[in-house]
Write a structure and sequence with these properties.
17% of the residues lie in helices and 38% in strands. It is of the alpha+beta class.
Length: 238
């Protein structure tokens, strides 16, 4: 088993800079949800993004979607959603895109993709949250100083930053953001942990501004609300 990164699997908060190609702006130069979706899908790399891109193009052209696929574009609330239900293998995949207008005039944009298998969240490379920051004044995408969602969550809620099998030490491990916190495990211990490891699922708001975080740990489900204050998120339980 190769080393894998948990954030890349279930909570990838990539504070990335993207080349924007904005067109037809509002008077404030802020992007509309339609323009944001066009930008996010401008380079359809990978199976999931390619599927969303193709469904989006069918939507724009007024063509029917493939069986199990659905597009929702809510311009008023600034929300986009793509759904793909594969009943044959009991897999439900959805992608959400929305944005928040910050009090400094910039826009925080989120892409959230989730895979549900047999009514349970699945840990796959297609399950992640990506946050970007757009500056309407410069028409540029900027890097974020910190993960706006990740900073609100504890290691207990998200689990280790990486885990897997280390071929050098010939042992299984759990690694956390603190480099001094490294847990070695036997294969039996690791297999038991895998069954109950925390899986974080994000729900973006279609109405309102707050994010819902659901942490699945075995049969236990914990729900947390992240409140938006105009510039950043903070835990509702603080």
């Amino acid at each position: 088993m190769k080393k894998t990164t948990v954030l890349a699997l279930f909570l990838m908060l990539l504070c990335c800079s993207i080349s924007a190609q904005p067109s037809r702006k509002s008077k404030s130069n802020r992007l509309t949800i339609k323009e944001i979706v066009n930008n996010q899908l401008s380079e359809p790399e990978g199976e999931l993004i390619g599927a969303v891109h193709n469904a989006w193009q069918r939507y724009l052209k007024g063509k029917p979607q493939k069986k199990g696929e659905k597009i929702i574009l809510d311009g008023r609330n600034g929300y986009f959603r793509y759904e793909n239900n594969n009943a044959e293998i009991d897999v439900h995949t959805y992608v959400e895109i929305c944005y928040w207008n910050r009090s400094d005039g910039k826009q925080l944009v989120a892409w959230n993709s989730v895979v549900i298998y047999e009514d349970k969240p699945a840990v796959t490379e297609c399950t992640y949250l990506e946050i970007s920051l757009y500056n309407p004044s410069s028409h540029e995408w900027e890097e974020l100083d910190e993960d706006p969602v990740g900073v609100c969550l504890t290691e207990k809620e998200t689990g280790p930053s990486s885990y897997g099998y280390n071929s050098d030490t010939k042992s299984y491990f759990l690694s956390y953001s603190n480099p001094e916190r490294m847990i070695k495990m036997t294969k039996e211990e690791f297999d038991q942990w895998i069954e109950v490891r925390p899986i974080v699922i994000i729900e973006l708001p279609r109405v309102g501004k707050d994010i819902i975080v659901k942490s699945y740990e075995g049969k236990k489900i914990t729900t947390l609300t992240l409140k938006w204050d105009g510039m950043k998120f903070h835990r509702a339980d603080n």
